[in-house]
TrEMBL record:
Protein name in the entry: VNT1B protein
Keywords: DNA-binding, Homeobox, Nucleus
Species this chain originates from: Tachuris rubrigastra
InterPro entries: HD, HD_metazoa, Homeobox_CS, Homeobox_TF, Homeodomain-like_sf
GO CC, alphabetical: nucleus
Length: 83
């Protein structure tokens, strides 16, 4: 008799299905102190990154380009609020 035949397969919950949490939204990225330091120093040099700089930074930091882009957007908004 085959093992598991006829047994229901448990479904995975949303927290087990990958990088997305409930509602299909991505989970918040927890940046390391080293990553934040690198991002901040890049931001001090220039507040807007072009596609080439973003691609290079993402590859060097092992993050996606979208994560880099979003971090810079959020950092610009933080600066705007502070001013």
């Amino acid at each position: 008799r085959p093992s598991g035949a006829g047994q229901p397969v448990p479904e995975e919950g949303p927290e087990c299905s990958g990088p997305e949490g409930r509602g299909g939204r991505r989970l918040r990225t927890a940046f390391s102190a080293e990553q934040i330091s690198t991002l901040e120093s890049s931001f001090q040099r220039q507040q807007y990154l072009g596609a080439a700089e973003r691609r290079q930074l993402a590859g060097r930091m092992r993050l996606s380009e979208v994560q880099i882009k979003t971090w810079f957007q959020n950092r610009r908004m933080k600066l705007k609020r502070q001013l």
